[in-house]
Design a protein that fits this description.
30% strand; 176 residues; globular
């Protein structure tokens, strides 16, 4: 997992002084690593709908004496002003969302990113168009690059990382 976190941060070109949002931060591990990268002049924020995850994230940041900020939140309603962040990251969260929340969430991400801001999505690659009878077609990882473009991003790039039991996909894009 550390290798995946480092690749996510590297793809986002996180720099000292950046203001970074980790959407679906869980217990805060990625945001804490980001806070170390952005230094005292930057800030990492993490949101997650889970109260226990946010409590653990806050505790971990305090234990490391880092000023990362964690709060309850969801991707479809980001409680931040327009053009707040230089970077938005999301790791292993998009596959949990129904299609309508993926669309709403990416629109919200575009809203809170500064012009030229960077988005990086890391997630599991599922088989193409995984479906079962009676189930609506889901937007899988393979469909996310097009959805990212529709949401106001440009220079959309993808890459893959193979692990022993799974394949991870990354999407990197710039806010237009």
């Amino acid at each position: 997992m550390r290798e995946i976190r480092q690749r996510t941060i590297d793809l986002a070109h996180v720099q000292p002084g950046d203001k970074v949002l980790d959407v679906g931060c869980g217990t805060g591990t990625l945001a804490i690593e980001v806070q170390q990268r952005v230094g005292e002049t930057g800030r990492a924020y993490g949101i997650d709908p889970g109260t226990q995850q946010i409590a653990r994230a806050r505790s971990k940041a305090a234990r490391h004496n880092l000023p990362a900020v964690f709060q309850i939140g969801v991707i479809e309603h980001l409680d931040f002003p327009d053009q707040t962040f230089d970077v938005v990251l999301t790791a292993f969260m998009m596959h949990h969302l129904p299609d309508n929340l993926k669309r709403l969430g990416l629109s919200e991400v575009a809203r809170v990113l500064k012009p030229g801001g960077r988005l990086v999505i890391a997630d599991f690659k599922r088989p193409e168009r995984e479906n079962s009878p009676g189930r609506a077609m889901e937007i899988g990882f393979q469909d996310l690059p097009a959805l990212v473009k529709e949401s106001g991003f440009s220079q959309v790039e993808t890459e893959e990382m193979r692990l022993p039991r799974t394949e991870i996909g990354f999407i990197r894009a710039l806010k237009s």
